[in-house]
Amino acid sequence: MQVFDCSDEGQRKAGLDAATDAVGRGKLVVLPTDTLYGIGADAFNRDAVTALLAAKGRGRNMPVPVLVGSWRTLDGLAEQVTGHIRDLVRAFWPGGLTLVVNHAPSLRWDLGDARGTVAVRMPLHPVAIELLGRTGPMAVSSANISGRPPATSAIDAVAQLGGAAAVYLDGGTTPVGTASTIVDCTGPVPTVVREGAVDLAALRSVLPLVREPAAR
């Protein structure tokens, strides 16, 4: 296990090199995002994703989301990028909004029991963006044991995950400290699945027809 302080330019470069190498070898890495710290793996490496779920103590019934380093990447992952999706991406990416879309049938990955969908986000954090630019899409979940508080610092993540991750990129305390909002865009009307960093009012200022969670 290696921990790199990304506030130091030399350590940041060394850390990004080490994280890129680890992801390429099917290992797990912990990275900062704008919302929370995440534990990530190559999205197309089934064994690595399985190891990620095991590290968190999480079942396949809770599929792993995917982080991307560019909004253009969504075109290659989604079966169809609708006008509603593009409006939300333009307004809130990079940032705290995760979009659930039907994934392209040609993709060969296994993120859990996702039933043909994938949850995608572009984070607003320079370290995350640089790593994703090197690795391509990563399967990333919050860097904590399932059921325990999410990590808002690298120290929190190390305390929970320890040697499960090969590399920890310490980017300081996460600026938002709240999980992303999730919007399901697989149907004709986008629907909020989880309220988080982006509130319903902000979503509706861009797309008035967004539905709030059914349980409300």
UniProtKB/TrEMBL annotation:
One of its GO terms (biological process) is tRNA processing. It is found in: Cytoplasm. Its main location: cytoplasm. Its EC number is 2.7.7.87. Keywords: ATP-binding, Cytoplasm, Nucleotide-binding, Nucleotidyltransferase, Transferase, tRNA processing. GO terms for cellular component: cytoplasm. Residues 13-198 form the YrdC-like domain. One of its GO terms (molecular function) is tRNA binding. InterPro entries: DHBP_synth_RibB-like_a/b_dom, Sua5-like_dom, TC-AMP_synthase_SUA5. This is L-threonylcarbamoyladenylate synthase. It comes from Parafrankia soli. The lineage of its organism: Bacteria, Bacillati, Actinomycetota, Actinomycetes, Frankiales.
